[in-house]
Amino acid sequence: MTQHWNRAWLAPLAVLILVVGARGAADEATVDRMTQEVRRAVAEGKRPPNEAVLIALRELGDERLRPLFAGMALRTDSSSKLHGLFGLADLTPERQVNIGQIAGISDQNLRAVVLGRAIGGDYLTTRHMHQVLNWPDIQPGLELVVTSKLIHEGEEVSVQRLRDVAASCPEDKIASRIFA
Prior knowledge:
Elements: H1 2-22, H2 28-43, H3 52-60, H4 66-73, H5 78-90, H6 99-103, H7 108-120, H8 126-133, H9 140-152, H10 159-167, H11 173-178
């Protein structure tokens, strides 16, 4: 099974290496062929051997990949959703994720992972982070992460709010001690 899976991705991976190596010098047919291969694999539920293929596609910044990333952003599996959302963000001049799409993720754990990566990769503005803090169902740990990033960015935050969040997490003894 593994050998067949690797062989199935050998041709698209080779094309991708050529496309990425050319960085903009790739002809339209090559990019379109690679897009079709990845789109087909996503539709069939297959995954590439590693995420390097999708990261490389994101780094191309090619507008023709927008439909691929938009489709991936609608998927329920975490890898597709992550690469879809960040692929779309990489196509914007500001490199910003769509905060509305993140808010729409019903799986709290996946939403936290997406937000964590968005914060770590500077895909969110401070305005977005303030919006996140106003979500009614924000998890306390995520609230601490967002607040910490806002402080790092020089934004003013409510110390009382931090204390309240820490108090709402009695199992997190470190946070409770820091903000007590």
